[in-house]
Design goal:
Length: 623
């Protein structure tokens, strides 16, 4: 059973969009407290549930006419919980008469060591002690998979069958030593009587470790997300896996218990179905390569293979005309890959068509792993921003009720992945320029012309909060180390935040907002912000969020947003916001969508997951 010690708290928002380091959390497994500084690396290496940042929702705010934004009402940092330590483990069996007791005694000698081990070595393999100790302690160290005479129970066969399903989940049965366990099972079936109690006990430990390791990967992923995404701050799913195994063995439901640990959402299930279909295509030789001069027949076969053209293989090979169905299939393919829907095969479409099916398989596997990092349920209503798709959706009861194009952070100022609760919005907001932007972007302008920012409606304040004349400052002598100024842009049509910003307090100071730079929404690649998310239809979103308040009609929102007077409006109910990074997903119509890996996060995840498949040239196979 897992116990979490959460460190909460983050600095108050000033209305700026600046990415700050997230708060740290420590987690203890098996009832043992982990040292905050040392546990993070260890838990990542062993695949433990990652450290997470938990955001406490702020109370609903009252509508406020005044100029200042409310500071989020966040609890003070919670003191580290004092834990007395795990309960004492049961003593090892004193009675060593009979094979069953001797097996239990051997298991106890392996797991009941002072101090408690982090790993247990069995047959040159390192097993996770934090999984094994609580499981065997609650059963007085009795073998779980072997009968009193040492022969394997039927549960072993169920375990081996379940491990054989790992590939369909985007995992690898080899990671759970299935082939070796099959040989071990056969050996025990043939010669259990000749095996020693020590050998049998070790075999039982190996079977248990395989179940619990596979279970943890199905539940929360092979990797701790922060190993590849340091900004990850979404609370993962959790279960008491020792108890899950106990119940599975008692009810003879080993296979069902493991299947129940997979994400149950439609998005994950549809990715799993796609993985199965694409593997069949790969087994059949993949799809054909298309060139600019390729015959129409080959293009038809290619689009039929990926499901974009609804013709059988024979029909696709016979028809050589570029007809309306083929044009529609090209458009569908382009739509699924985030390309301009021209109906013709241009350079971008050709490049997407020629991505090998093996790379698409890996891409699907990576995004199935990301699904395992997510909570069981997003709730009945939430806002989802998928960063690589440059899209925002408001989901209500499983349906998208609002869609919007978005602009996300550029490569050097990436939008982080996290979840928080939207609490209020600000109409006609002022923009408090983040220090990082002020130093990197605005200071060079001030050096060239001290009055350059005045034309943008940006005022300069000193460290005491007094507005100053920018022409009185020798900006050439100011740098990052002595930039003791605050820049604030007035509300109005030139404001970088546009007419509305939507606040969901978080440690990154990231929010959704309007923008005066409307032309950027028409571009296919929209990585232009400093980390915040610009949305194309802010009035529509505000109207939806305030729809239960009759005074906030569409016209009233537009008037307030253009008034030049900042106004804070609380939401009647906080709305969860998820900022995610999916390069493959199923849309609400069940169509599988692929997008470019704009932040190269697929590549880092691929390297971490498949380190043993790196080629001699140093490049990873696949994505």
């Amino acid at each position: 059973m897992f116990k979490q010690i959460i460190f909460l708290g983050f600095c108050a928002l000033s209305g700026a969009c600046a990415l700050n380091p997230p708060p740290v959390a420590a987690q203890a497994a098996g009832g043992q407290a982990l040292a905050v500084q040392n546990s993070a690396a260890g838990s990542l290496q062993s695949g433990a549930t990652p450290a997470i940042a938990v955001l406490q929702p702020s109370p609903v705010l009252q509508d406020r006419q005044e100029d200042a934004e409310p500071e989020p009402d966040v609890e003070e940092a919670t003191p580290v919980e004092t834990i007395a330590g795990p309960p004492p483990l049961p003593p090892c069996p004193a009675d060593d008469s009979g094979l069953q007791n001797r097996m239990a005694k051997r298991i106890c000698q392996q797991v009941r060591i002072e101090p408690l081990p982090s790993i247990i070595k069995v047959e040159n393999r390192e097993l996770r002690a934090d999984y094994l100790i609580p499981f065997y302690a609650q059963r007085d160290y009795r073998a779980a998979w072997l009968a009193a005479d040492g022969r394997p129970l039927s549960a072993v066969d169920d375990l081996l069958k379940a491990l054989g399903e790992a590939d369909r989940e985007g995992l690898r049965s080899a990671d759970y030593h299935r082939a070796a366990l099959q040989k071990l099972r056969s050996s025990l079936e043939r010669g259990a009587a000749a095996s020693t109690a020590e050998q049998l006990a070790d075999a039982d430990l190996l079977f248990t470790d395989a179940y619990l390791t596979y279970a943890s990967h199905l539940l929360a992923g092979r990797l701790a997300p922060r190993k590849v995404d340091p900004d990850w701050a979404i609370k993962p799913r959790s279960r008491d896996l020792a108890e899950t195994l106990r119940v599975a063995l008692a009810e003879d439901k080993v296979i069902g218990s493991l299947r129940a640990l997979t994400p149950q959402g439609d998005g994950y299930v549809q990715l799993r179905d796609t993985l199965h279909r694409y593997r069949k295509i790969e087994e059949a030789g993949g799809w054909p390569t298309i060139s600019s001069g390729t015959a129409t027949k080959a293009l038809r076969i290619r689009l039929q293979a990926s499901g974009d053209l609804s013709e059988s293989g024979g029909e696709a090979g016979k028809n050589v005309t570029y007809d309306k169905p083929l044009t529609g299939a090209v458009r569908r393919f382009q739509r699924r890959h985030g390309l301009a829907e021209t109906g013709t095969v241009n350079a971008a479409t050709l490049a997407a068509l020629n991505v090998p099916v093996s790379e698409r398989i890996r891409q699907v596997e990576l995004n199935m792993e990301r699904w395992r990092w997510l909570p069981d349920d997003f709730g009945p209503r939430y806002i989802l921003v998928n960063i690589p798709s440059f899209r925002m959706n408001v989901i209500e009861n499983g349906k998208s009720v609002i869609e919007s194009n978005v602009v996300v952070g550029r490569q050097e100022r990436q939008t982080p992945t996290f979840t928080a609760k939207m609490a209020y919005l600000v109409l006609s907001p002022k923009w408090y320029v983040p220090r990082s932007i002020a130093v990197k972007d605005k200071l060079p302008q001030l050096r060239r012309n001290p009055y350059a920012l005045a034309g943008q409606g940006i005022r300069v304040y000193n460290s005491t909060g007094q507005q100053i004349n920018p022409g009185a400052v020798n900006w050439s002598a100011v740098g990052a180390g002595n930039f003791n100024y605050q820049l604030r842009q007035d509300a109005g049509p030139r404001n970088a935040l546009g007419g509305i910003k939507f606040m969901f307090p978080n440690p990154y100071n990231v929010y959704l907002h309007d923008t005066p730079s409307r032309s950027l929404f028409s571009r296919s690649q929209r990585t232009f912000s400093s980390g915040c998310i610009r949305i194309s239809n802010p009035v529509e979103l505000a109207e939806y969020l305030l729809k239960h308040d009759p005074k906030w009609s569409k016209d009233a929102i537009k008037t307030a947003a253009a008034s030049g007077k900042q106004r804070v409006v609380s939401l009647p109910q906080e709305v969860p916001v998820y900022l995610l990074y999916w390069t493959v997903w199923a849309d609400e119509n069940g169509e599988i969508q692929f997008r470019d890996d704009i932040y190269q996060r697929d590549k880092s995840l691929l390297r971490a997951l498949y380190q043993d498949e790196v080629t001699s040239s140093g490049k990873s196979k696949g994505v």
